[in-house]
Write a structure and sequence with these properties.
mainly alpha; MetI-like fold; 2 domains; 15 helices; MetI-like; transmembrane helix
């Protein structure tokens, strides 16, 4: 074999060309497999979002087809001028903050309890998931029956225990309806936190706890110095996801109070529904939905860039 023939297979240009060809082939195959998913995402997510934003700047009425055309910012002015907007915004903030805080506190406490070496903990871990698997409509109706002032068993128990002088309409009171629905939402949603935090707790190395115990650290100090930092990433992810889920939640409040009484438990999703399905003003409903999406997108980007900055550090 001549020196020229031996050098050809090892030419740098040929190797680079083959490498580029392989990458192009892999990229083409990947694009082919991802194409159906991309089309599905465009149809189910991108197109509805674009449609909502487009209709937010147009006059759209379900019962009056003559009401059409470019509206500019009129729909947004309609929302901001509505007397119910600011109370609904405050209710949404209260509902979201109290729900997420209660879910996290109860989920963390139950996860710590279920991580202990107690007898029957497998059974308790199975039982704690039950509220999460109950459909929202079923859970809401059951709690409406339990809290009913006429025949609700919880009111009867509280009266017998001396906590109440007489049965109280928890869902019908202006000052209690939102807090009551928030309590029910915490009851149903905290198992999701429990499962996630329990998995993170079980991943904490026992060697760290043993070393800290040998150094004289107590249970509470070990929790805050060793255990809690290991839960930071999971906790932030759970809180971020549930802030978004809770803020846009429609089912629970609509099933239990429909935003009443006197809009005392009305949140922004309930307000969007009423604009679209009761007032038939789709343009205003889309404007309010666009404002909500912009706020949620802001939260997402703040969380994303904060997480990236922490990763870079």
């Amino acid at each position: 074999m001549s020196a020229t023939q031996a050098a050809v297979p090892h030419a740098p240009g040929a190797e680079i060309a083959r490498s580029r060809s392989r990458r192009s082939s892999v990229t083409g195959v990947a694009a082919l497999f991802l194409a159906p998913t991309a089309v599905l995402l465009l149809l189910l997510i991108a197109w509805p979002l674009v449609s909502v934003v487009w209709q937010s700047v147009r006059y759209v009425n379900l019962v009056d087809p003559l009401t059409a055309g470019f509206a500019g910012l009129d729909n947004f002015r309609t929302i901001l001028d509505d007397e119910a907007f600011l109370p609904a915004l405050v209710n949404t903030a209260v509902w979201t903050i109290l729900s997420v805080a209660g879910e996290y506190a109860l989920g963390l406490a139950s996860a710590v309890a279920l991580a202990q070496p107690i007898r029957g903990r497998v059974v308790f871990r199975a039982i704690v998931v039950v509220p999460w698997v109950i459909p929202i409509a079923i859970a809401g109706l059951n709690w409406m029956w339990l809290l009913n002032p006429d025949y609700g068993i919880l009111n009867a128990w509280m009266v017998k225990a001396g906590l109440l002088e007489s049965p109280r309409d928890w869902l019908g009171g202006i000052d209690t309806s939102l807090l009551t629905v928030t309590f029910v939402n915490v009851w149903r949603s905290f198992p999701f936190y429990t499962i996630s935090l329990l998995a993170a707790l079980l991943a904490v190395p026992n060697d760290l706890h043993e070393a800290a115990a040998m150094d004289g650290a107590g249970t509470i100090r070990r929790f805050f110095v060793i255990t809690f930092p290991h839960l930071k990433v999971v906790s932030l992810t759970l809180i971020f996801i549930h802030v978004v889920w809770t803020a846009i939640n429609f089912d629970f409040i609509w099933v239990m109070t429909q935003g009443g009484p006197l809009d005392a438990s009305q949140t922004l999703p309930i307000m969007i529904y009423r604009y679209a399905m009761q007032d038939f003003d789709v343009g205003a409903a889309c404007a309010l939905a666009s404002m909500s999406m912009a706020f949620m997108a802001t939260i997402f980007f703040v969380y994303f860039y904060a997480a990236r900055a922490r990763g870079a550090r």
